[in-house]
Design brief:
The structure holds 2 protein chains of 2 kinds. By secondary structure, chain A is α+β, with helices and mostly antiparallel strands. Chain A contains 11 helices and 10 strands. Chain A is 56% helix and 18% strand. In chain A, strands 1, 2, 3, 4, 5, 6, 7, 8, 9 and 10 form a 10-stranded mixed sheet that branches. By secondary structure, chain B is α/β, with parallel strands linked by helices. Chain B has one domain: Rossmann fold (3-Layer(aba) Sandwich). In chain B, the strands form 2 sheets. In chain B, strands 6-7-8-3-9-10 form a 6-stranded mixed sheet, sandwiched between helices. In chain B, strands 2-1-4-5 form a 4-stranded antiparallel sheet, with helices on one face. The radius of gyration of chain B is 17 Å and the shape is globular. Chain B starts with a strand and ends with a strand. Classes of the chains: A alpha+beta, B alpha/beta. At the A-B interface, helix 1, helix 8, helix 9 and helix 11 of A face helix 2 and strand 6 of B.
Amino acid sequence: MAWRNLGRNRVRTALATLGILIGVVAIASLGMATAALQQQATADLQGLSNEVTVSAGPDNTNDGLTDDQVTDIRTVTGDATVVPEKTNVTTLSARNGVETRVSVTALTKADAMYNVSRGQISNRLRSGGLISDSVATQLNLEIGDPVSYEGRLYRIQGILSSSQGLGGSQRELVLPMSAMADQNEYDSVTVLTTPEQSVDTLTTDIESWFNENDEEIVRVRNFAGVQENVDSFLSTLQIGLIGIGSISLVVASVAILNVMLMSTVERKGEIGVLRAVGIRRGEVLRMILTEAAFLGVIGGLLGVVVSAAIGVLLFEVLLGSPLEAFNWASAQYLVYGMAFAVIASVVSGLYPAWKAANERPVEALRE
Amino acid sequence: MSVIELVDVVKRYENGTELITALEEVTFQATHGEMVTIIGPSGSGKSTLLNMIGLLDTPTEGTVRLNNREVTDFSPDQLTEERRSEIGFVFQDYHLLPMLTATENVELPTMWDTAIDRHDRAVDLLERVGLGDRRTHQPTQLSGGQRQRVAIARALINEPDILLADEPTGNLDQDTGATILDELTRLKQAEDIAIVAVTHDEQLVEYADRVVELVDGRINT
C-alpha cells in the first residue's frame, strides 16, 4: 500500500530518493576517502615509526659517531637492530654524458633499511649498489649496470621503491660500508626497535647514556610523534568531512519532509476517507512512516552502491588495492550512510504522518 | 429497535468571531431495514447531521446512541472503533483510492487487520453489485456508476448496521442513479441494515421509506 502510494507520484519520489542518495554518497564516500588516506599514511609512515636516529650533537668532539659510540649504542639498545651509516654527496654521470647529483649512503644491513621494487638486496651489498628509481631512469641505468664512486665500480643490484617514508631521499645511491672506508666516523646511526621496545624509551636511554648535564654529545630523534600527529590530523579531517556529509543528509531529510508533507496535504481527503471508514490513527501514521522509510531504504541502497563504487575507485587510486574498500575500516561508512538514510527518512516522516493521522475526518473530507 | 438514535442534538460551530448553530435540537432515528432520506436546502445542516449519525463529529449538546449504547462522550479513538465495526460510508465523489484495484478498494477498511481476511467477502460483494468481472480493474478504468458500486461494496465489507450515503447519486445520470438506488434497496433488505442518505435528488426520495426535511438546522415535520 505504502509502496503503491510512492508509485503515484514518481517524479516526486525519484527526487526525494535522489536527495537521500546524494546525502548517503556524501557521508559514505567522504568517510571512505579519509579511511583510504589514513591507511595510506599509516603504510607510508610504518617504516619510520620504529626508527630512532642518532647523530653527533654540537658538543661532540668528533664530526660523527665513533666505533666506540656505536658499540655503546648497541649495548644500550639490546635486541634492536643498529645500522650505522656514512653519507656523502657525489656526481654520477651516464654514458651519454648526463650528470646528476645524488646523496650516497654507505651502510651494512641494507636489507633492514630499504625495499627494492626491482632486483634484490643482499645483506652486505658486497660490491653492489642500490639506486633510486628516478636516478636510474634519468641516467638510463639498469640492474647489472656499473656506477662509479671514488674511482671504484659498483654493480646495481636493485632499484629502490619510491615510497621510503618521509626520510627517504628520492635521489639516493646506497653502497656497501667499504665504499667510505677512508671516513672514520659515522654520520648517523639508525636504531630499528623490536616490537617489544618503545621508541620513546630507547630515545631516553640513549640520551641519558651519552649526554650529561647540558651537553649534547649525541642528538637522538624519532618519528613516533609524527605518526601520532598525522593520525590526529586525519581524525580531525574525517570528522570535518563527515560533518559536511551530514549537512547534505540534513538537506535530504528536509526534502523528504517536504515530499511527505506535500503528499499528505494532497491526499487529505483520501486520508479522511480512511479515517471515516474506521482506519485507526496509528494505522494511518504507520502507513505514512512506511512510505518515508521506503524512500530512505531505496535512496540508501542506491547511495551505498554508488558510494561503494566511489570507494573502490579511491582505494585503487590512493592505495592501488581496490578491494581494501570493503575492509571494515572503510566499509563501516557504507553502513553508517545506510543507517543515517533510514533514520533521517523516518524522523522527517514523523511530522507529516502525525499531522495526517490527527486530522479530523470531518475536516479532511470537506476538502 | 433503532440502530442509531439522536436526541435533542445541538451543534454549534465557532466561525471566526461568529457562533453558528448548525443543528438545533434535532431528534432522529433509523432502524434496521429502513431507508431514510434527509433533504433540505444547502446550508440547512444536512451534512452536519450525517456527520453526527456517522460518528465523525460529536454534538455540542444532546445524546447519540448506537445500538442502544450511548456514544456521545466517546473519545476520537473509540468513535473510530465504532465506525470500523458498525458503519459504512458512501460518498458523492466515491473516494476510491486510485492505485488500488476494485477488490482492494473494497477490502480497504479491513486491510490493516491481519487477523481477518475479508478477501472472499470482498469478491462476493463485488459480484453482488454486478462487478464480478471488474475485480482487478482500477478506479480509472471504471465508469461513474461502477465506481459508486465499488464504493457501496466497500461500505458493506465490515457488515455494518448502518450505511450512510452523502449524495450517492449526485454525480450520476438518471438511469445509473436508478440502478444504484435499486442496488441499495436490495442490500437494505438482504443485509437488514439502516440506510441514511442525504440528497437533493428527487429520484432518491421516491426510493425512501421515510423522508426527513431539514430547514435551518431544525427538522421540519
